[in-house]
Structures are given as C-alpha cells and as structure tokens.
Design brief:
Elements: H1 2-36, H2 42-65, H3 67-70, H4 75-102, H5 104-107, H6 111-134
Helix pairs in contact: 1-2, 2-4, 4-6
C-alpha cells in the first residue's frame, strides 16, 4: 500500500504537467490547422497540425515533465515511441467518441460530451503509455 502511495505522489505532478503540456499542444494543433487550411485541403491540414502538435508536446514533455527519465534517450528514438503511443491514444479517443455517439439515443450523448469523454480516455491512455513505454521511470 505504501509503495502505491509513493508511486501516486511521484506520478501526480507528472500527470498535471502532462495535462498542461497537452493543453499547449491543443493550441499548437489548432494554430497549425488554421494556418495549413490556407494552403491545403482539410485532411492534409489535419495531418500537418497533428505532426506539429505531437512534436511540440513531445519536446515540452521531454524537457519539462520527464527531464530526468529522458536524460539517456535520444530525441529521435523518444519521438518515435511518443508518436506511436499518442497515435494509439488518439485511436482510443476517437473510438470512445464514436462508441458514445452510436449509443446516443440511449445515453443522450451530444457530440461535444462524447468529445470530452474521448479526450479524457485519450489523456489517460497517452499518459500511461508515455510513462510505461516512452519515459520509463528510473529505479
């Protein structure tokens, strides 16, 4: 039980930092999308904005939230792991969104509420994979 409490004390500040970095990533995503829409179609713009957001959030997490864990990890290797992890988290986010909309008549989910639920699922998924797969805790 004490080990669990110690782990939570250590991970809570990282989770908060991860969430704040995610909020900054949303701003990057939205800004990059808006910029790219002036030049390319919606799908290409979204791919561009996602890549910008993942690059920004990886860099911020690497240097501020997980600095100690990233010390011996090359930038590129860590980025690839982070990209894969966040792509899986994005899939969990989207799957949650779609599942809730499918059952909307029963549960009365609006697209906005489904988006919030998907975002929370994605956040938990991304944080867990980031801690376990990208920035492994030093023992």
């Amino acid at each position: 039980m004490q080990a669990m409490i110690l782990m939570c004390r250590k991970l809570l500040p990282k989770f908060i930092g991860f969430g704040l970095v995610g909020a900054a990533g949303f701003v990057v995503d939205l800004t990059a999308l808006t910029f790219a829409l002036a030049f390319v179609d919606e799908v290409s713009a979204r791919v561009f904005s996602f890549l910008c957001a993942v690059t920004a959030t990886y860099s911020l997490n690497r240097y501020f939230v997980f600095a100690e864990e990233a010390r011996d990890l090359s930038w590129l290797r860590g980025f690839v792991k982070f990209f894969v992890s966040n792509s899986l988290g994005g899939a969990a986010n989207f799957a949650t969104y779609l599942a809730l909309l499918k059952f909307q008549p029963i549960l009365e989910w609006t697209p906005q509420l489904a988006l919030v639920a998907g975002t929370l699922v994605g956040l938990a998924f991304n944080f867990t994979l980031t801690v376990l797969f990208v920035f492994k805790q030093k023992t």
